[in-house]
What does this fold into?
Amino acid sequence: MVIETLLLTFALLGVATLLQTLSGFGFGLIVVSSFTLLDIMPLTATTFLVSFLSLFNSVSLVFKNTHHVNKRAFNILLVTAIPFMAAGYVLLEYLSQSMSHWLNIMLGSVILLCCGLLVIKRSAVERSEPSIGFGVAGAMSGLLGGLFSTFGPPVVFQCYRQQWSITEIRITLLAFFCLTSLMRLIVVPFGTLPSYDIVLSTLFAIPIVLLFTRIGRLLAAKVSARHIKLLALLMLTLSGSLLIIQNITL
It folds into this structure.
């Protein structure tokens, strides 16, 4: 990987990490969409990078707060996500080999759909929902995670509708993301392996993610989360639209 591409990779990872830390979402979506749009690396390599680096955003926090995890919801989400994640990964491997432009159109459409989910006003339920709601969210999350290493929007939408404390919501989501990212890394050897350059770049990116996570935490009290969320959504909407337009015109 040439130095210009490496610097651009680190810059985009820094922006995605900062926005994720300040807004609570967007790391995977921003990295996958920007890397694909700018043709920085293949989608299969990008999803490996996202899964690996996602662990450094949250794993330590989860270990310290496991008692805040909603065990019932977590178990349902995980059990339903795993088989659909495998299906999504197989689909990614198939489409990336022969129909990459259709895969990019699908990615752009998913990004726009995720943006829609994230701006919909979440009406809280009066009591815990039946298991089917978490099951559907877990299945959708698993499919998106297998395809694009983006597990967030369906489960974020579902969990924020519950009458839980914000700490319970946050730690339950982080625990789910940590474990699903780890599982996605486990299945990587069964598909397209990342090249040596990609693995090396991913390792070099760890300090970038840790640094911008720290900067984001310091800035959190000084900037408006609402404005940051709006900026992230605008970036995602633009990149998703450009991905669709770019590949439809091929």
Observations:
- The two ends are 26 Å apart (CA to CA).
- Residues 3-248 form one domain.
